[in-house]
Amino acid sequence: MDGVTVAENTDAERAALLRFVERFALVLRESGMQPMPARVFAYALADDADRYTAAELADGLQVSPAAISGAVRQLVQIGFLVREREPGTRSDLYVLDDGQLWTRFVTAELQALRRFEDVVAAGIEQLGADRPGGRRLVETQEFFAFLGEVLADAVTRWPEERERRRLG
Amino acid sequence: MDGVTVAENTDAERAALLRFVERFALVLRESGMQPMPARVFAYALADDADRYTAAELADGLQVSPAAISGAVRQLVQIGFLVREREPGTRSDLYVLDDGQLWTRFVTAELQALRRFEDVVAAGIEQLGADRPGGRRLVETQEFFAFLGEVLADAVTRWPEERERRRLG
DNA sequence: AATGAGCTTCACACATTCGTGAAACCTCTG
DNA sequence: CAGAGGTTTCACGAATGTGTGAAGCTCATT
User: Fold this and answer.
1) What is the pLDDT of residue B95?
2) A143 and B102 in contact by Cβ < 8 A?
3) Are residues A34 and A61 in the same domain?
4) Which of helix, strand or coil describes residue A84?
């Protein structure tokens, strides 16, 4: 696979890739992701390998190994990357598992939603529901619950939708 | 309504409110909102008034009027707050319109999704779809399209869902 | 056990972001 | 048209966040 990676990387294509990575990462940052994890994710998504060592990521993104270390830890924790180890080798491999990639994304969103629900529930308990602001909080709670259901439903439907779109 | 506002605000309740505002704002920040807009939104949501002057917001949140100015501008632009003016008064009034509050939230999310789609589409055009990374980008594009449809559908269903939850 | 490649941790310098205070600017009242 | 209440703009100081370099650590190989 190294042969392929090298073959595609004319300077121009490499530069175009990095420009895209930077643009995509910027949008991800606007949604709350940190700069370095956003870049690593965008890079792993858009480049052609299906597994990356930390060194390859550092090299490809032109950043220090230290920066990669922190970024992949977070991405692994969220579930965007899976850490693997080939027996008899010293370097970790990071792979973004194609099949479940975007279901994992929604799952992460769902966890964020859960945090919303928790905070709002605590607020209602603390501040009371029987006043104008309290009623708004209750409605907020109900909305987040609804949105959670909608997203959970979307996750289960995505695999078949994905197939349909691939064919249609 | 001023009477009500003052009446509820024992020091303890006021402090509890501000604690909640800070917690809620923190979660909003993690989703990409800026600190001050997040606080203002949380405060306007959780406190009991249904309209706030900039001075009231500054006072309630213990921050400078300058900070409010920037925050409300953004919130108005997103659609979370509506700016009003009572005839014969010198101060603007900011109201979060209860009815459409959370549909506006999803609408904002949809605009963010749109930005994703645009960036990814440009990336595909620039980098090509006929390679491993390109295929992932195409799938990404399709996923965002799907998610957009799901959210748009959720927005239209929320009003009736809201009623159902209120009664059930 | 010793070696060395590779990953991680830590302290630091740089950059960015945030909220304030003061002054300018409207806009309604008298 | 003068005056004042209220909002906005601007430059600044403080705080926060970000990525790097160097040292430390882990683990497969010899």
Assistant:
1) 95
2) yes
3) yes
4) strand
pLDDT given at position B150: 97
Domain boundaries, position B132 = 99-167
Residues A127 and A140 in one domain: yes
Rounded-to-integer distance, Cα B125 and Cα A116, Å = 37
Residues B114, B128 within the same domain:
yes
Q: What is the pLDDT of residue A6?
A: 44
pLDDT confidence tier of residue B8, bands split at 50, 70 and 90:
low
Of A31, A46, A126, the CB nearest to B112: A31
Q: Tokens for A46? A: 């858009």
Residue pLDDT, tens place only, B112-131: 999 999 999 999 999 999 99
- Between chains, do B115 and A27 touch, taking CB under 8 Å as contact? yes
Task: Among A72-86, A87-101, A135-149, name the most confident range.
Answer: A135-149
Q: What percent of chain A has pLDDT over 90?
A: 76
Residue that is last in its domain, among A65, A96, A127: A96
Whether A76 and A82 have beta carbons less than 8 Å apart is answered as: yes
Measure CB to CB from residue A127 to each of B17, B27, B116 and give the nearest one. B17
Mean pLDDT of B132-161: 96
Residues A25 and A85 in one domain: yes
pLDDT at A150 > cutoff 60? yes
Q: How far is the CA of A26 from the C1' of C16 (A)?
A: 15
What are A53's strand-pairing partners?
A93
Q: Which of A41, A61, A96 is the last residue of a domain?
A: A96
Total tally of structural domains belonging to chain B: 2
- CB count within 10 Å of CB A3 equals 7
Say if residues A14 and A48 touch (Cβ distance below 8 Å). no
Q: How many CA atoms lie within 13 A of A155 on its CB side?
A: 17
